[in-house]
Amino acid sequence: MKKILYNTSPLIFLLIIFNLIFTRSFVGLEVLGFRLGEYIVLFGFIALIFLTFFYLRFKPSNEVRVITLIFIYFIFQLIFTRANIANTYTFKAASFIGMVSFFYLGREFYHEQLYVRKMRQFLPLLFPIIYLFGSSIYPNFLSTFFIRFSDKFEFIKASDILMAVIVIVFYFNVFESKKWNHFFIFIIIPAFLPILLYLSRGSFVALTVFFFMELFSIRKDLFSDIRKTFVYALIGFFIFIFSTLNIYGNLSFEKSNPLMNAELEKSQTEVLQENLQDLLERRNYVGVIFSLYIDNGTLKSTDGTLNWRLDIWQDLLADMSKNNKNIFGYGYNSILSVMTDPSEPGRMGSDGMNENIHNYFLNIFARGGFVLLFLFLYLHFIFVKKWNILYKNYRLTNFIIPLLIASFFDVSMEGVQFPLSYYFFIGTFLKLKP
Question: Which one, 50, 297, 304, 363, has the greatest CB density within 10 A?
Fold first, then answer.
């Protein structure tokens, strides 16, 4: 088994790289009548069944014990909710559980295999590719390929851009030579901030948080050579200006890029942004803070898409309390009822296909209640604690917190490509040595 994993490590890592670059289009490729993403989720659950108990018996650790509890709790939920395990929707709704098993893959992966090490060194070459793809500049032959062989072609989303940038920057800042720290912090991150601001403010905030967390982590290096830091910061400022002009076409942050606007329109599943400022003035609301305000006891936002999310989240919490679902959740048998509310037809999106509440934590809470939410939060605490035991710092939070911030406002963890990279690289970073 070890020999097979060793020999296939380059291929697996190449697939991980493809997942970072081509994201949803890649996992949508159809093989023998099923999408690649469906095979990945299936593999995740199979690995969860066998590897969890293997690790529990032969390599017990706190993170293994928590993952075991998550799996056992999931089994009990299936039993008590009388879930139909022959129905693929059950595992689609619970995919966020199966994807945790890729942590084991990251931990057991042969990262020091020759060709894997060589591929890791070339990861920075992904930056210009992802930048172009994020700008909605996509080679025709690739889009044609995915349109033909994938169930869906889409440009790389903000959360996936965020994932790729954080994975590469974190890896090189922590595990490679420190001479690249200034470059990744002051050149790469400012280049990507305008793209994320254009596509998703949640991902923009997440990358900004990552930026400041990394600044804090390398503060000694920054202050040890003030002149170098100042020069890089100045270059970074101009990089940000240039990237803003390239993405927006202006410095007033008005969305005038026709390619990106077309993609945003095409992928929008929420209600369209309305001019709520005029509505506020007519209703004479006061006390708007960061676009948030209270209307008849309900938290709302002047931003249409955030208001759409807030409406779903608050209805979900109210419905769970009403139906006594706070402790154990709804389970995995069907779409969450708040998404199929006939009085809110816009929640399913213009194509009627959206069923996600766009919040990782509330999705866990809805499916498994406080019990499952606590287990997932505790698992992340254990990841950070494990890192602290190994390296006597909390640097892993620089990777985890920004990505969880983005997942708080997005559907990212309810898919395949994002949690695949997330858990694989957490396992990877706990295996590699700085």
Answer: 363
pLDDT tier, 95 (very low <50, low <70, confident <90, very high otherwise):
very high
Tokens of residue 183, six digits: 């470059």
pLDDT of 353: 64
Helix (H, G, I), strand (E, B) or coil at 34: strand
Q: What is the pLDDT of residues 314-356, one digit of tens each?
A: 989 999 999 999 999 999 998 888 887 766 655 666 555 677 8
Give the number of residues written for the chain: 434
pLDDT in tens, 375-433: 999 999 999 999 999 999 999 999 999 999 999 988 899 889 999 999 999 999 999 88
Task: For the chain, count helices (H), then strands (E).
Answer: 21, 4
Main-chain dihedrals φ then ψ at residue 354, nearest 5 degrees = -75, 130
Q: In the structure encoding, which two tokens stand for residue 364, read together?
A: 């866990």
DSSP 117-163: HHHHHTGGGHHHHHHHHHTT---HHHHHHHHHHBS---PPPHHHHHH
Residue 403 makes CB contacts below 8 A (sequence gap 6+) with 162, 163, 166, 206, 422
Backbone angles phi, psi at 391, to 5 degrees: -125, 5
3-state secondary structure of 392: coil
Contact 63, 103 (CB under 8 A): yes
